[in-house]
Write a structure and sequence with these properties.
Layout: E1 2-6, H1 18-32, E2 36-42, E3 56-59, E4 62-67, H2 70-74, H3 86-93, E5 99-103, H4 108-119, E6 124-127, H5 139-156, E7 159-162, H6 165-173, E8 181-183, H7 190-194, H8 204-207, E9 215-220, H9 229-239, E10 246-251, H10 258-268, E11 274-277, H11 283-288, E12 292-295, H12 304-311, E13 316-319, H13 323-331, E14 335-337, H14 342-354, H15 356-373, H16 376-391
Parallel strand pairs: 1-2, 1-5, 2-4, 5-6, 6-7, 7-8, 9-10, 9-12, 10-11, 12-13, 13-14
Antiparallel strand pairs: 3-4
Helix pairs in contact: 1-16, 3-4, 9-10, 9-14
Length: 392
């Protein structure tokens, strides 16, 4: 098949979020399986891929357009990606594709590709990646977008791929008919986790000045208010009054929430117990450095981080109500907490740390579940079947 993948950002801009990892993983495995894969994306930092000149790059057998953005040229962070040359390329090429797969439907890329796929009668698949419900920030703008384009883009899709039952219900609330929804989790790159070379010649603990005897509580992800890291910090500040030799390790790029967190940590007087580290691609060593990973957001539809941690044998705690908790309940693995207050989260972290054998056993059950259900090949096969449904 000739497949067009449309995503706001693509590798190697991993810090832009889970949609980058998901779209790259799927695109690369489809190319390996013999499909002709083209990717339309944008460029925030052209120096990373020698891009931004609107010409296609051949990357791992994929033809990738890193379209330049007006927002980058004007240095205005509040402007969304505006790939000004994409409409001209899409108008020229759309008729040549068999199927279009749009990742994240609230983008200008989605509007343009929806328009030209309709003109050329090319079926398309939408995968929202947790972006259906307009929560937390820019609610009004998202609702305006939905009224003008978003709802139409969802309803016109031949199929909508949801990563969990929770996201499927959100799609139905937006007017998507249930017979067009397919539930398929994101595929996980196991090789990325098995690459456990030391970081810059040192272990991750040594690099971040963490004693060998310390118990490490880990958060890994974008430093953003939606991640509810402040709740984890409150829980940790309570826990260090009950347990010694604890370290809170926060790993990830600043998404606008770093300064308030650092101020909170200083006000609580726990600066010496907290370590910050920027994004690292070699995450296997990070997970192995931790005794428990905590994923506090309850709005997350599918988090790569908890499942990657399970693959490394690290016990996890996730918030009740998230799509991740739904999957963990099905797998009978990990701790699911109704994170209404810091005290409740603190008690759960303490239980995991004080019962390492039980926690490791749950993590092993989760690891086997992830291997069975989230492997690249099996996920790609399920997506291929969705494409075939659309072509029929």
């Amino acid at each position: 098949m000739k497949i067009l993948q449309v995503t706001p950002y693509f590798m190697p801009e991993w810090e832009a979020g889970g949609v980058v990892r998901a779209s790259y993983n799927l695109s690369s495995i489809l190319a390996q399986r013999g499909h002709e894969v083209t990717v339309y994306t944008t460029s925030r930092n052209p120096n990373l891929i020698n891009g931004g000149d609107n010409s296609p790059k051949i990357i791992e057998g994929m033809r990738v357009f890193y379209f330049d953005n007006f927002s980058r040229r004007w240095s205005l962070n509040w402007i969304p990606p505006i790939p000004y040359l994409l409409p001209a390329i899409a108008r020229k090429e759309m008729k040549d594709f068999d199927i279009v797969h749009i990742h994240d439907f609230r983008t200008l890329l989605s509007i343009a590709c929806h328009h030209y796929s309709a003109l050329d009668k090319v079926p398309y698949v939408i995968q929202p990646h947790g972006s259906i419900t307009p929560f937390f920030e820019k609610k009004k703008l998202k609702k305006i977008y939905d009224a003008l384009w978003g709802s139409m883009i969802l309803r016109d899709a031949s199929r909508v791929i949801s990563v969990s039952n929770k996201e499927a219900e959100q799609c139905k609330e937006m007017g998507v008919k249930s017979d067009r929804i397919r539930i398929i989790p994101n595929g996980i790159d196991f090789s990325r986790l098995l690459n456990r070379e030391a970081v810059e010649g040192k272990s991750f603990r040594e690099k971040n000045d963490i004693p060998d005897n310390a118990k490490v509580v880990l958060f890994l992800g974008r430093i953003h208010p939606a991640k509810r890291i402040e709740l984890l910090i409150d829980a940790f500040s309570l826990l260090i009054n009950e347990m010694n030799d604890l370290i809170l390790l926060i790993v990830g790029p600043d998404g606008g929430g770093m300064q308030p967190l650092q101020e909170k940590i200083r006000n609580l007087g726990i600066t010496d117990r907290v370590r910050f580290s920027d994004y690292v691609d070699n995450v296997g060593d990070v997970y192995l450095s931790a005794d428990v990973l905590v994923n506090p957001p309850n709005t997350e539809i599918f988090g790569f981080v908890p499942f990657e941690a399970l693959m490394c044998g690290t016990p996890i705690i996730v918030a009740k109500g998230s799509g991740t908790s739904e999957i963990l309940s099905e797998a009978n693995s990990g701790c699911v907490v109704d994170c209404k207050n810091a005290s409740e989260l603190k008690n759960t972290i303490r239980y995991v740390l004080e019962h390492p054998d039980e926690s490791k056993e749950l993590a092993e059950i989760g690891r086997r579940y992830v291997l069975r259900n989230f492997a690249f090949e099996s996920v790609a096969e399920r997506v291929e079947k969705v494409y075939e449904e659309c072509l029929k």
